Amino acid sequence: MTADAEDVGGIKIIAKRIDGVDNNGLRTLSDEMKQKLGEAVIVLISEAGGKVNLIATATDGAVAKGAHAGNLIKEVAGLVGGGGGGKPTMAQAGGKNPAGIPEAIDKAVEVMKQQIS
């Protein structure tokens, strides 16, 4: 799952869709991915029961280079009909429009690149 990570300025970025996982599961997966990737920004989006769960996490090193999980999730959540927010290192959101997930993933990558570069 971490093989798709892209390196931007020494920070690994990845946005993935993993359906059928609740927010707790997404948090666990993002923690595992951070351990494998090192300095990283990770966005995971899941559809479960017609609802969309999103989580964004950023390591301290990524935050030092400009990443902010809370701002990232705010920009992406609207694409899945939801809202959310959080701290620089971790943010969550929910939504009601699973059809927006592909666009949300693309937007997440774009925002991560803007934050870091």
Features:
117 residues; alpha+beta; 6-stranded mixed beta sheet; 38% helix
Describe the secondary structure blueprint for this structure.
Blueprint: E1 6-8, E2 11-17, H1 23-37, E3 40-48, E4 51-58, H2 60-64, H3 69-77, E5 83-86, E6 90-95, H4 101-116
Parallel strand pairs: 2-3
Antiparallel strand pairs: 1-2, 3-4, 4-6, 5-6
Helix pairs in contact: 3-4
Assign the structural class, choosing from mainly alpha, mainly beta, alpha/beta, alpha+beta, or little secondary structure: alpha+beta
Radius of gyration: 12 Å
What summary fits the major beta sheet? Answer: 6 strands, mixed
Stretches with pLDDT under 50, minimum 5 residues: none
- What gap, in angstroms, lies between the N and C termini? 24 Å
Helix coverage percent of residues? Answer: 25-40%
How does this model look, in words?
With 117 residues, the chain is α+β, with helices and mostly antiparallel strands. It is built from four helices and six strands. It has a six-stranded mixed sheet, with helices on both faces. β5 (83-86) and β6 form a beta hairpin. It is globular and about 35 Å long.
Brief synopsis:
This protein is an alpha+beta fold and 117 residues long. Helix content is 38%, strand content 32%. The chain has helices at 23-37, 60-64, 69-77, 101-116, and strands at 6-8, 11-17, 40-48, 51-58, 83-86, 90-95.
